[in-house]
Amino acid sequence: MQLSSPAGVIQIVNEPTYSLSSADNVRCYPLELQLAGGAQSSSIHGVLLDDEPVAVISNGGGASGVHQHSAVFKDGLLYLAVGDRVVCLSLEPVRMIWSLKVDSATCFGIHFDEKHSAFISHGELEIARFSAAGEILWSESGADIFSERCALHPQFVEAMDFNGQIYRFRYEDGLPASP
After folding, report:
1. Mean pLDDT of 68-85
2. Residue 179 lies in a domain
3. Which end of the chain is more exposed for a tag (fewer CB within 10 A), N or C?
4. Which structural domain range is residue 73 located in?
5. How do 52-59 and 71-74 pair as beta strands?
């Protein structure tokens, strides 16, 4: 996954064989973050800036892969889905601003709606809106896992669960929205 930023081209990569604090890794990241608290890591994502490794983040929870909704770059900060969390990183200088657990299992992706200034996490068990400061504003679940699509519409967030049931959440408060 690649994103453009004033700092340069940001690339997010899967690093499944990366071992924190090891000299035997293919790449060496100046910033290593372990969010799993000593538990087994299920997701390890690297952040490169103009092809230079800058940070690697390891976390537990359900495994998250790298795809078009793995990260959002907004107002000079990178918001990255890793395991069950969203991590907010500054790239100049490179440092973690905050880490927020957004789902009980896995965060599949992050979306941003300009009109509502809304960060939305598409989790396996919850759809949540979080703030740029790292706070959950609302979180809603469904009858089954949200393993299907998640899309932002002008008036609502739409998610589909494993059984094909569609849910629509209002940006303001997460309550059910009319189509």
Report:
1. 97
2. no
3. C
4. 2-170
5. unpaired
Residue 178 lies in a domain: no
Question: Which CATH number characterizes residue 24's domain?
Answer: 2.40.128.630
Q: What is the 8-class DSSP label of residue 138?
A: E
Name 87's bridge partners. Answer: 80, 99
Please state the domain count of the chain. 1
pTM of the prediction?
0.96
pLDDT band of residue 36 (cuts 50, 70, 90) is confident
Q: How buried is 159 (Cβ within 10 angstroms: 0-12 exposed, 13-18 middle, 19+ buried)?
A: buried
Q: Which two tokens stand for residue 71?
A: 């990260």
Cis link prior to 154 (omega < 30° from 0)?
Answer: no
Residue type, 61: G
E strands, 25-164, where?
31-34, 43-49, 52-59, 71-74, 77-82, 85-91, 94-101, 107-113, 118-123, 126-130, 136-141, 150-152, 156-160
